[in-house]
Amino acid sequence: MYSRRNFGRVAMAGLPLSLAFGKLDSHVDGVLIGVQSYSFRDRPLDAAIAGIVEVGLSECELYQGHVEPSEPRGPEGREALRKWRLTVALDEFRNIRKKFDQAGILLYAYNYSFRDDFTDEEIARGFEMAKALGVKYITASSTLSAARRVAPFAEKNKIVVGMHGHSNIKDPNEFAKPESFEAAMKLSKYIGVNLDIGHFFAAGYDPVAYIEQHHERIVTLHIKDRKKNDGPNMPFGQGDTPIKEALQLLKRRKYRIPANIEYEYAGGDTVVEVRKAFDYCKGALA
Fold it and tell me: What would the pLDDT profile of 66-115 be if each residue is shown by its tens digit?
C-alpha cells in the first residue's frame, strides 16, 4: 500500500496513477461501490483523489465543494460565488476530469446543488460544467420549487438530475418524503433520485423497498448508517440503516446503481474511516 507521501511522489513524477496503482475496480459481486467525494471534505481535490485511490474505490460522485472556491458567508460571498460559477473557464472542469481519468477513477456524477436563490444562468451553467466533466448525471441537495425550474434545463441538455434527500419531513419543499421525490419525477424523465439510504431511513421510510420500486429512476445511492427516528450518523454497522439489505438487493436484482459511500459521522482519519466503510460493504455483500 502506498503512503500519502509516496502517492505525492508518484503524482509529481507525472506517471499516470492508473499505471502506478494498477487498474482500480471496486465492484463487489457485481455491485459498484464508489464514494461521494464529500467524504474527503477535509482535504483539497488532489488529496481527495489520492485518498480515493488509497482506499481502492474506482467510482466517484464529485462534491461541488471540491471544485468551487470557499467564499465568506453573507451577500457578498454569495455574489462572488455566483460570479465564479458564471465566469470560470470550462477547461478547469475538463482538467478535473483528466485527473480522475489518470487516477483510474470513473467520474460518474457531479454534485451541484440547485437552490432557490440560483439564477437561471447559474442553473444553466451547472449543465455546462457537467458536460465539461464528461458526466451524464448531476446530483443535487435541492428543493421541490428549485426542481421545477431545473427540469426544463435537464430536458434541454439531456442530463439526469438526481434529487438528494435528507430527513427533514417537516418542510414539504425539502426532499425527504417519498411524495416529494414523486412530485419531482413527474416533472420530467430527466429528474431522478439520488437516494441517501441513511437519511431516508432516519426519516422513517424503507430504502430497500423504495429502491426496488424506483430503481429505474435512481441515479446513485449514498450509503451511510444512521439511527432510526432521525438519529445520528454512525460508523457503518453501528446504526439501524439496512445497508446490507440494500446492497444485497442491488446484487440480487443486478441493479446497475453505484452505491457511493458517504462518510459523515465524527471519526478519525478519513482514509481509515472510508476504508472501514468499504470493508463493511464487502462483508455485507459476501
Answer: 999 987 889 999 999 999 999 999 999 999 999 999 999 999 999 999 99
Query: How distant is the alpha carbon of residue 211 from its chain centre?
Result: 17
**Cell reading at 243:** 445497508
Q: What is the mean pLDDT of the chain?
A: 93
The angle subtended at Cα 179 by Cα 177 and Cα 183, nearest 5°, is 130
Q: Which of 216, 169, 163 is nearest to 194 (CA)?
A: 163
CB 114 within 8 A of CB 141: no
Sorted by where each begins, the domain ranges of the chain are 24-285
Joined grid coordinates for residue 51 = 485518498
The residue whose grid cell reads 433520485 is 193
Residue 84 grid coordinates: 465564479
Give the pairing of strands 27-28 and 31-36.
antiparallel
**Cα(135)–Cα(100) distance, integer angstroms:** 12
Give the Cα separation of 222 and 263 in Å (integer): 10
Tell me the residue type at 245.
E
CA distance 20 to 141: 35
Dihedral sign from CA coordinates of 142, 64, 112, 54: negative
The span from the CA of 82 to the CA of 174, in Å, is 22
Fold of 24-285: TIM Barrel (3.20.20)
CB 131 within 8 A of CB 157: yes
Dump pLDDT digits (tens) for 18-41: 444 458 999 999 999 999 999 999
Cα distances from 73 to residues 77, 80, 112, 130, 241, in angstroms, run 5, 10, 18, 25, 34
The grid cell for 160 is 439526469
- Please name the amino acid found at residue 45: L
The grid coordinates listed for 169 are 419531513
Alpha helices in 104-229 (DSSP H): 120-133, 144-157, 178-185, 197-202, 207-214
